[in-house]
C-alpha cells in the first residue's frame, strides 16, 4: 500500500472514530436529560431522539461557554465528561432492548460502518463553498482563539453573522483535524440522519414492525439524503445543517401525530422539536418561521393528546423544561448577536441598542439589501434587482434547472395553465 493510500485509510478511520465519540457524547447528554425528566429512554427511536437532543444541548452549552472562554480543550473535556456520566447511567435500557435482537442488528451495524467510512472519505475533501473563505473559516478561527469579542462585526461585517453552527465546527477542531474541521463537523449531522433513515428502511425490509407513514417518508427521503451526502461539500456548512435540522423537525412532528393517534405520550417528541427548532433558528435565521411553526404545532398536538390519551397523560414538568431550555438557547443566541454587532439578528436593524461597538446602521441596511438581491439574482446590483419584479422569471427558471422542489411547483403551474387552456376557461 502506498503512503498516500495508507494516509487516506488512517484518516477515514480517524474521522469515523471521532464521529463515534461525538455520537456517544450526544446520546449521553440526551439520555441524561430524558432521565432527569423521567421520560422513556428505551428503543431505537428514543435513542435517536436523545442524540438530537444532546446535540442541541451541546450547541447551547457552547454558546454559554464562549461568552467567557474560547472553544478550547476545556470546553470539549467538560462536555465529554458530562456526556460520559449520562451515557454510563442511562444506556442500560437501550442495551437491554437490543441484546435479544443482536443478530438482527449486526447486519445494520456493518452497513453503518461502511456508510461512516464512505462519508469520512467525503469529509476529507477540501472546502468548496464560496462563503467558506469569505467568513466561515475566519469566524471559526476567532472562536478557537478568543472568547466572544464585542463589536467584532466592525472588523468585518460578515463576522457579525451569528450562526451557532460555527461553535460546533470549532468544537470538532482538535488533534489531526485542526483547521480541517469543516466537513468533519457537517458530515456528522449527515451521518446521524442517514443512520436514522437507514434504520427505518432496515426494519421495513425485515418486516419487524408495522409500517407507518413516517417510515415511508424516511424511505422516500433516501435519494435526497444521498444527494446531500454526495454534493454536501459544495454547500455552506450552516446551509446544509439547516436542511438536515428541517428534516428532523418534520420527522419529529410526524412522530407526534402518530403517537397522538395511538394514545401515547408525546412529551419526548415535544422536547426534540423545541430544542432542535431553537438550535436550527440559532444556526440560520431563515429557518426561523419553520422552527416556530413546528414548536407551536408540537405544543398543540401535545395538549390535545393529553386530553384524549388512553394512557396516563404525561406531566407538565418536561414540557415546561423544554420551553425553558429552548428559551435559554434563544436568549444566549440573541445576547451573542448584541455582543457581535449591537443588533439581535444582524443584518436586521430591529432591536438595535446604543452601544459603542454597534455596527453602523447604514452598513447593516446595505448588507440586508445585498442578501435579498443575491438570493433573487446573484451577482446583480441591489439597486437593479430590488427596484422591480424583473428578477422573478429568471429565479423560477433557476429553480427549474436545479431539479429541486421548485421543479415540481413549476410543473404543477404549467399543468394547471394547460388544463385551463384545454378546457377553454
Q: What can you tell me about this protein's structure?
A:
The protein is mainly α. The chain folds into two domains: 14-356, no CATH class; 388-425. The chain is built from 18 helices and no strands.
Give me the Rg, rounded: 23 Å
Residue-averaged pLDDT? 82
- Approximately what portion of the residues adopt beta-strand conformation? under 5%
Detail the poorly predicted runs: 307-314, 405-425
Largest sheet descriptor:
none
Shape: globular
Q: Roughly how much helix do the residues carry, as a percent range? A: over 70%
SSE pattern, N- to C-terminal: HHHHHHHHHHHHHHHHHH
N-to-C CA distance: 71 Å
Count of runs of 4 or more consecutive helical residues = 18
Please give the domain count: 2
**Count the strands?**
0
Structural class designation: mainly alpha
Quick take:
The protein is mostly helical and 425 residues long.
List keywords for this structure.
mainly alpha; globular; 18 helices; disordered C terminus; 425 residues
Set out the fold topology.
Layout: H1 3-36, H2 44-65, H3 73-90, H4 92-98, H5 102-123, H6 130-145, H7 165-171, H8 182-206, H9 213-220, H10 222-231, H11 237-262, H12 267-283, H13 288-308, H14 317-341, H15 361-376, H16 382-385, H17 392-402, H18 405-423
Amino acid at each position: 500500500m502506498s503512503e498516500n493510500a495508507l494516509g487516506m485509510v488512517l484518516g477515514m478511520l480517524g474521522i469515523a472514530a471521532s464521529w463515534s465519540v461525538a455520537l456517544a457524547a450526544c446520546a449521553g447528554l440526551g439520555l441524561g436529560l430524558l432521565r432527569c425528566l423521567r421520560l422513556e429512554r428505551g428503543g431505537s427511536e428514543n435513542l435517536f431522539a436523545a442524540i438530537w437532543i444532546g446535540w442541541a444541548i451541546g450547541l447551547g452549552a457552547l454558546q454559554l461557554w464562549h461568552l467567557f472562554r474560547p472553544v478550547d480543550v476545556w470546553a470539549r473535556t467538560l462536555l465529554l465528561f458530562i456526556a460520559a456520566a449520562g451515557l454510563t447511567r442511562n444506556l442500560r435500557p437501550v442495551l437491554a432492548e437490543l441484546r435479544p435482537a443482536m443478530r438482527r442488528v449486526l447486519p445494520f451495524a456493518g452497513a453503518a460502518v461502511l456508510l461512516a467510512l464512505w462519508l469520512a472519505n467525503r469529509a476529507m475533501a477540501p472546502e468548496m463553498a464560496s462563503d467558506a473563505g469569505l467568513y466561515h473559516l475566519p469566524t471559526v478561527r476567532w472562536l478557537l482563539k478568543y472568547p466572544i469579542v464585542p463589536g467584532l462585526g466592525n472588523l468585518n461585517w460578515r463576522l457579525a453573522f451569528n450562526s451557532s453552527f460555527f461553535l460546533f465546527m470549532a468544537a470538532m477542531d482538535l488533534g489531526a483535524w485542526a483547521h480541517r474541521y469543516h466537513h468533519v463537523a457537517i458530515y456528522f449531522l449527515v451521518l446521524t440522519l442517514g443512520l436514522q433513515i437507514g434504520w427505518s428502511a432496515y426494519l421495513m425490509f425485515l418486516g419487524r414492525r408495522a409500517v407507518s407513514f413516517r417510515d415511508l417518508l424516511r424511505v422516500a427521503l433516501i435519494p435526497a439524503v444521498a444527494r446531500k451526502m454526495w454534493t454536501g461539500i459544495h454547500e455552506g456548512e450552516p446551509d446544509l445543517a439547516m436542511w438536515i435540522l428541517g428534516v428532523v423537525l418534520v420527522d419529529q412532528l410526524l412522530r407526534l401525530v402518530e403517537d397522538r393517534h395511538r394514545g401515547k405520550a408525546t412529551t419526548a417528541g415535544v422536547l426534540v422539536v423545541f430544542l432542535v427548532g431553537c438550535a436550527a433558528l440559532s444556526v440560520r435565521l431563515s429557518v426561523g418561521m419553520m422552527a416556530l411553526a413546528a414548536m407551536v404545532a408540537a405544543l398543540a398536538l401535545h395538549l390535545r393528546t393529553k386530553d384524549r390519551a388512553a394512557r396516563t397523560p404525561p406531566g407538565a414538568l418536561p414540557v415546561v423544561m423544554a420551553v425553558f431550555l429552548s428559551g435559554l438557547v434563544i436568549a444566549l443566541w440573541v445576547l451573542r448577536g448584541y455582543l457581535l454587532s449591537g443588533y439581535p439578528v444582524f443584518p436586521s436593524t430591529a432591536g438595535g441598542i446604543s452601544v459603542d461597538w454597534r455596527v453602523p446602521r447604514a452598513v447593516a441596511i446595505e448588507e440586508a439589501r445585498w442578501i435579498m438581491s443575491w438570493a433573487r439574482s446573484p451577482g446583480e446590483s441591489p439597486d437593479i434587482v430590488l427596484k422591480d419584479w424583473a428578477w422573478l422569471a429568471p429565479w423560477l427558471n433557476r429553480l427549474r434547472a436545479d431539479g429541486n422542489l421548485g421543479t415540481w411547483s413549476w410543473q404543477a403551474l404549467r399543468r394547471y395553465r394547460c388544463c385551463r387552456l384545454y378546457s377553454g376557461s
